[in-house]
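Quarterly update, task 2.4: adenosine-5'-triphosphate-bound model.
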Amino acid sequence: MQSSDAAVEISGLVKRYGEKTAVSGLDLTVRRGTLTAVLGPNGAGKTTTIETCEGYRRPDAGTVRVLGLDPVADAARLKPRIGVMLQSGGVYPGGRALEMLRHMAALHANPLDVPALAERLGLDSCGRTPYRRLSGGQQQRLALAMAVVGRPELVFLDEPTAGLDPHARRATWDLVRDLRRDGVSIVLTTHHMDEAEQLADDVAIVEGGRVIAQGSPEELCRGEAKGTLRFQGRPGLDLGTLIKALPDGTSAAELTPGSYLVEGEVDPQLLATVTSWCAQNGVMPERLAVERRTLEDVFLELTGRDLRA
Ligand SMILES: Nc1ncnc2c1ncn2[C@@H]1O[C@H](COP(=O)(O)OP(=O)(O)OP(=O)(O)O)[C@@H](O)[C@H]1O
């Protein structure tokens, strides 16, 4: 990939805290105009990596380029072009919500409309409330608003929906989708599989300070595993004609009386073949289900751990 196509290029990143190696040779490329979700168990090194991209930490080894710049040496040029939402802090606790947002907007040449952004994120009613008196979810949404108000080219969102109620989560997703549609590059960490599946162009799974898998959600879920299609019908169906109609490499079997399983490359064509065979044979395929691996399955296979563990 040409470096001009990359919003973030990390190569062989190592970061230690004393004896502890938090990041150990991490490689990651984020394409411009795309959203990359970084997933990994607690302590995998996600926040450390992101903070290094933001210029808050210096690499012990390896290189980090953000919009083609060095986040530490070129900080003054880079900071106005990126938006940062930290997991916590970075905000004056006594400051009032809307004042802080207005202040942040004033630091940028072409900011978003502050009242509209505040309304969109449900912050308009708490505009005069000091930051420390906002609820956890409100603090979170204010941090998101502050990260995006300057129309950055690239935003880093560290667990943007952690602890949000479903409504606020949805509003956050909508805002992130709009940013993405406007061509903003986005890196977000999350512990929510559905968030990554809904929003991400690319997913990077980090464990032990390295990226152990990267690809689109579809690529990662496709993997080596076959898809499955299950249905229920009358017991003892003769599957010979179905098997003949299915493509090579696809199997069909009656697992238990009346319970059928088709395994293979499950695509719309295969589904059509199975349902038309059912129609020809007077079979109503009850509980028809197409099942594919989810990101959570992939994550479990790769890390042996539950994402939220
Ligand atoms: N300032 C620090 N001093 C010492 N160790 C640290 C520091 N910050 C992080 N670590 C350690 O480095 C490792 C990576 O932490 P990091 O916060 O980057 O992980 P993470 O993937 O973001 O985790 P989480 O999902 O819990 O946010 C952990 O073992 C953590 O304890």
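Highlight for this quarter: The chain has two domains: 3-221, 226-292.
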